[in-house]
Amino acid sequence: MGLGAYIIRRILLVIPTFFIATVIIFSLIHFAPGDPIKLMFAESGHPVSPEIVEQVRKRLALDQPLYVQYLIWIGKMLSGDLGISYGVAFGRPVLSLITERIWVTVALMGAAEAISIVFAVALGVIAAAKQYSVIDNVSSVSALIGYSMPTFWTGLVSIMVFAVWLGVLPSFGIVTHGVELGATERTIDFARHLILPVIVVSFVYTAYLFRLVRSNMLEVLRQDYITTARAKGVGERTVIYKHALRNTLLPTVTFIGLSIGFILSGAVVVETVFSIPGLGSLFIEFALKRDYPALMGLSVMITVMVLLANLCADIAYSLMDPRIRY
Amino acid sequence: MSRAGRTYVAWRKFIRNRASYFGGVIIAVVLLMALLAPVITREDRLEIDLTRAKLPPSPEHLMGTDPLGRDVATYIVWGARTSLTVAAIAVLLEIVIAVSVGAIAGYYRGIVDDILMRITDVILVLPTIVLLVVMVSMFKVRSLFVMAIAMAITAWPWMARVVRSEFLSLREQSFVEAARSLGASDFRIVARHILPNAVSSIIVLATIDVAWFILYESTLTFLGLGDPAAISWGSLISRGRNYLRGAWWISTFPGLTIFLVTLGCNLLGDGMRDAFDVKTRV
Known about the structure:
Chain A is mostly helical. Helix content of chain A is 76%, strand content 1%. The radius of gyration of chain A is 24 Å and the shape is globular.
């Protein structure tokens, strides 16, 4: 099988995965006990006439059998209609809420992902190459600590130290209100607001990724071809950075794709802690207000993001490793 | 080597590991704290009393008091009960689901196995917090049990896959063949001959998952999706959130507690994984 055929097959594989995921999301909400529409309006707090309740029920096709409901819903999703937010945004389409907020989340996740990969790979490789050295011990212990800290609490502690005590960084939102800023200053202001959230997400994720890179590298270093290279008199630097590193990075690439969900979970929590208007905090608002149609629409959107990231990682892998195509 | 011999060697390796020893001590302390909560604390310190609100740490209130005048240290001790109960229920449910599904898939293979693997693939790729939030918000009541169910449902795929892979290799072993030729039923083979050999993997994964469950319980509660009536570390942290400037102790101490307990579980899990030589990813 050539590279092109592999990539096409991999793209086609996304389709069944997408459908299984949507069935899971759909059934989670529909097997919920109680009347979701009544619950939703009860939670939103403003009085609603029975006609509107009926209208929403019709719109969501809740009077139809379950599989019909699913087909109608998934048809709408595929045509770009992610539903209407009744509970949170008084009848605005979910898609427009998403397009408004997605960039903040993408910026947050992208920056955190980039920082984590650089630190985790560099430290992981050095730690494995010098197993049991000071640098290995220090970074392994730090990783264990990062791995065990609750993200929301790390966020609060960072706010306490850097915003409240030292007063050097802003503690919430993404813009400073009440001041006129030029284009450059606006960008700097935005970046300053993202520093703490990005560090908090990166901290956990670096810990997670570091452990993986280190153990992959240790495994690679134990293989025969490394011993052969050393026996032939290849320098230690070349052995590590040329022979071992490449094979360590391969599984890491797949893992990065798979763990996009992990970093998204971090973003959901961190956006809430720092009151950042992104997809994560929107998701929690929907959940708290029991805005089910909107919650489902956003979940589908998140699923698509995760599956695409996964797909990219797999394609990158196949470009890097010729063995995978056969 | 006999099974008893292997267990002995693994056990020796495990108790020699200082890190996992440390983890075990933390977990033991927290378990005792939860069990002895009524003995080691005074329950009246959990009552709301605005005259002693937001008092800083002192000999009288070791970790200070919260905005409603409750003693933070006492609250943390009682919170251990909540945290451990939720984690225990979730982990038991998880083991039941994962062992049933993993055993069926690994023992019978075929179409059941294919379907299972597709479903686990999808659940593994979706963000856990997203699945948890969707599941918790669909229930009318917000309770500890709801959180435990949601956590078990999101967590079982890892364990099911590990159980499945154990079963796939164990079912080909000659002792299983021997049992089958003696006329043992499928149930007997699975329960008496294969499952006992998969127990160490299940225990290691369960320990690591307890760490995750404790984190998830506090996270969901912090986000406002937990049990509003429960004494939970997450809700204490959330209450202290508005007082970071004046009363740092309210959020700091429960957070440190969550960190230590999670660390303890991770150290214990890692130590057992290395000692019993268990694969946690498949």
